[in-house]
Amino acid sequence: MKNKIQIFTELPSLNEYIDIERKNKFAASLIKKRKTAAVAAEISTQKCIIDPHGLYDLKIEWFFKDKRKDPDNVYFAVKFILDGAVNNGLIKNDGQKNIRNILNIHAGFCSNPYCVVEFISIQKPGYISEKSQTAFFDYSTGKEIK
Predict the structure, then answer these.
(1) Which of 45, 83, 96, 101 shows the greatest Cβ crowding within 10 Å of its Cβ?
(2) Quick one: 7 exposed, middle or buried, by C-beta within 10 A (0-12, 13-18, 19+)?
(3) What beta strand segments (E) does the chain contain?
(4) Domain residue spans in the chain?
């Protein structure tokens, strides 16, 4: 099962996005829509197979072009990646029912910046996933908790 995607779309940093938003809120909205759609299109070309209703930790390895952008500003691009994954149908939602933790790793430098996103499935004790329906099982009482 492949649980990784690579994103080569150039995504704006937080500072770049704020600058655009201050100039024109409609331009910022357009950038968000375009970048989210570009990420969704990129995901559709890759064979990432995960349960869209599952619970995941994300491990994102960032490869930067140079040291000009601060890592915390680049990590803002997670918004575009998760929204693209939702638009593509890779995950049902980008809320806490589907995404638990996000680990950002500064992996190095290269001439064409990109990131690798790994979806790490979380299986909690008592967690049941059948036909995209989830439930919790209380072992002390022997009953299913909905």
Answers:
(1) 83
(2) buried
(3) 4-7, 56-64, 99-109, 114-121, 127-130, 133-138, 143-145
(4) 4-145
Architecture of domain 4-145: 2-Layer Sandwich (3.30)
pTM, two decimals, is 0.81
Q: Which residues pair with 5 in a beta bridge?
A: 117
The per-residue b/e assignment along 20-44, b for 16 or more CB within 10 angstroms, e otherwise, is: beeeeeeebeebbeebbbbbbebbe
Phi/psi zone of residue 82: left (φ > 0), alpha (ψ -120 to 50 degrees), beta? alpha
- Kindly tell me the sign of the dihedral angle through the C-alpha atoms of 79, 82, 83, 84: positive
- Tell me the pLDDT tens digit for each residue of 98-136: 999 999 999 999 999 999 999 999 875 445 444 444 444
Read off the tokens for 128. Answer: 């049941």
